[in-house]
Amino acid sequence: MYKNFNEGMIEVITGPMFSGKSEELLRRIRTLEYAKLKPLVIKPKFDIRFSDNEIVSRSGSRHKTIVLQNISEVYELLKNSEYKAIAIDEANFFGAELIEVAKNLANSGYLVIISGLDQDYLQRPFSPIPELLAMAERITKLQAVCIICQHAASTSFRKVKNNETNLLGDVNEYEARCRKCHNLGLKSQKNTK
């Protein structure tokens, strides 16, 4: 799986909400730990939905994490360390600075595994994930199940009226939807204004 990662590489795990991105990242972390390749596990301070200091999947898996306000703080954590990999959950909340940081880390020989949304609630590219997808050596794009029609879901539909791009939420605020049901939902929201 990671035969040549010591040359550095970027891996991105993406998909809509409820597709298992955090679960997949936690699985990769367990694999690295089993192989004695110590990963630095981080998440943004903004993400406090399930825990202040852990990555938590909806299935209940969890892992202690270091919480960062700014992704550039990672450089200080890597000084005099034995880390071989960096695992970043909810990476979309770190913003555009993550693009350069991920590139620098991979160029320095680290395996950088990034998990985050590639689209916002209006199906627009959700930076920095689309840019990281273009640079990644490996991409895993997950799907959820559409809450309306039970087909494959590739979007995160926002049920609440709020125009903020970064709005933390879970099942009360968001649903996984296929493209068709997402577009029907947007149309219905416009008609109820």
Share of β-strand residues:
15-25%
**Low-confidence residue ranges:** none
Calculate the mean pLDDT score and round it.
Answer: 90
Number of strands: 12
What do you see in this structure?
With 193 residues, the protein is of the alpha/beta class. Helices cover 26% and strands 24% of the residues. The chain contains five helices and twelve strands. The protein has a six-stranded parallel sheet with strand order 5-2-6-7-1-8, sandwiched between helices. β9 and β10 form a beta hairpin. The protein starts with 8 loop residues before the first strand and ends with a helix. The relative contact order is 0.20.
Key phrases:
six-stranded parallel sheet, 193 residues, two-stranded antiparallel ribbon
In short:
This protein is 26% helix and 24% strand. It has 193 residues and is an alpha/beta fold.
Write the layout of secondary structure elements.
Elements: E1 9-14, H1 21-34, E2 39-44, E3 54-56, E4 62-64, E5 66-68, H2 74-78, E6 85-88, H3 97-107, E7 111-116, H4 129-135, E8 138-141, E9 144-145, E10 152-153, E11 155-158, E12 174-177, H5 179-191
Parallel strand pairs: 1-7, 1-8, 2-5, 2-6, 6-7
Antiparallel strand pairs: 3-4, 9-10, 11-12
